[in-house]
Design brief:
Layout: H1 4-9, H2 26-162, H3 165-186
Family: Belongs to the ATPase B chain family.
Membrane topology: Single-pass membrane protein
Subcellular location: Membrane; Plastid, Chloroplast thylakoid membrane
Length: 187
Amino acid sequence: MKNITDSFLCLSYWPSAGSFGFDTDIFATNLINLSVVLGVLIFFGKGVCASCLFQRIDRKQRILRTIRNSEELREGAVEQLEKARARLRKVETEADRFRVNGYSEIEREKLNLINSIYTTLEQLENYKNETIQFEQQRAIHQVQQRVLQQALRGALGTLNNCLNNELHLRTIGANIGMFGAMKEKNN
């Protein structure tokens, strides 16, 4: 096998121009073939490579843009979450205040209601006592009226039995005289 430097240095070894043949020197032909293939690939493949490269760059920019948008949305969501938490704390504070005020208001209303009930009970007790006293007075008055009526009936019965005609006329005359004297006083 020949050395690579031998094929490049020895120029007299080239075959004549009129013949066609295969070069059996693998290293020299590989370099030529590689340079031709690379040249063709670069010539025809630069558009494909450029479009792939631009697509990758464009995709990278879209991904970066999407990441930035996601970060902005996340920051907005975090900000809204903090605002919502602040509102929640405020509402919870107000609810606690209303709850405390409500409980104290309920206690106050309960005490007012209890006091009102006691006042009403006292008034009802007073009305009951007054009613009992009135009914007792009325019952006493009715008993007195009956006793008086019975006493008058008994007295009339006794008087009728004891009075004779003359005594009866004198009593009537005396009563008429008393009524006449009372009438003169009033005039």
